[in-house]
Design goal:
The chain is of the alpha+beta class. Helices cover about 20% and strands about 40% of the residues.
Amino acid sequence: MLDRELVEEVLVAARRRGGSFAELFVEERSTTSVRLDDGKVEELTTGLDRGAGVRVAQGTNYGYAFSNRLDRAALLQAAEAASAALTDGDAGEIVDLRASEPAGVNRAERPASDVPSAQKVAWLEEMNDAARSFDPQVVQVVGVYGDSLQRRLIATSDGRWVREDRPRIRLVAQVIASRGADNIQTGFEGPAACAGVEFLDRNTPRAVAEIAARRAVTMLDSIAAPAGEMPVVLGPGCGGVLFHEAVGHPLEADAVDKEASVYRGRIGETLASPLVTGVDDATIANAWGSYAYDDEGSPSQRTVLFAEGVLQGLLYDRLRAEKDGVASTGNGRRESYASPPVPRMTNSYILNGASAPADILADTPRGVYVTAMGGGQVNPATGDFVFGVAEGFSIADGVVGAPVRGANLIGRAIEVMQAVDAVADDFDTWEGVCGKDGQSAPVGSGSPTIRISRMTVGGTAG
């Protein structure tokens, strides 16, 4: 996207006051978004955005500036603005840039850019028809299709030169079902991947719509959720959402560096059940949070966070890794060229165990079975969290019963992870978008069915 001579000139300008290193992040992103509401196209947009960000670091402090222009004058102006954050010092050196060839982590077999917009609208029309034909109680269907291709160049004063393309695609169905004026329920399904339209072979518009419609219709028969401490069984993928929020965020190195993590100084301790092995892995082919190199040019990797309940390590970007004298784990991520990188999760998973999911349910005398998670809040400093349940069911005498509404899951990360007493072998994923420091990033969560022996359920039942 830029020739090497200009890149080197920008890095030299950025280091004119020194600093430990300078970095240039260049991005070009093309996007398509289609929104269908009740069979009508409400939005069809395509866009192209390009720009660059310049960072000059000194320890964990840095100056950052960006431009939506890629000409020489604009880039040098950004370099000057970034370097101005440092006190005057000797100019820093620039090492010869060495190209790194990324592995094919996210290959698109059939690029979305080759598919006409009319076909993308047709996929949403298929979703609309499938959801409405699922049950006459379906009263509204919103379908969203999105794809993007992000092209990146990362160059640093210590010699990194990384180019990588990231294709993304997502299909979302939101269905509303109604039974009378007072009983209205919503179902959601939104799979996603770093892939091309071959993704739709595994996640067909009809299947996505029917999952969302089934959730909405099922919840029409829901009863008030129970309240109190009880066993909670989290279905495939749901435990990964809990792991991401309650455990993953406190393990991001900036939270630890700010002394705002419940896990600070506790590596090597048993802080989860021996049944829990959890990883953050950006190397999984075509997964929603995957890449070959992070947004600082560090190679992606599989980082073990817990091994049989023992805390193993943290998720590092470059700045915090250098401060702690360790290698980056490849978790420096940014929303776009307009944002500096921060430590972020990628695909955070609890790995398979040895139990059968049916046996876990049959062995649960009472409690709640969660099959879809809602939104939540977490305090990384204490590990306290609250999550909504989008779809859940009562459990009585080992049998899954009526759907429940209004349930919340309340607890503390360490206590809840230590209370995991069963892990199944039916791993599945749940894709989403995570917000942090005003930036959004695509992340994958995953887990098999797991049971937490004691957890507080907030409900409305007497």
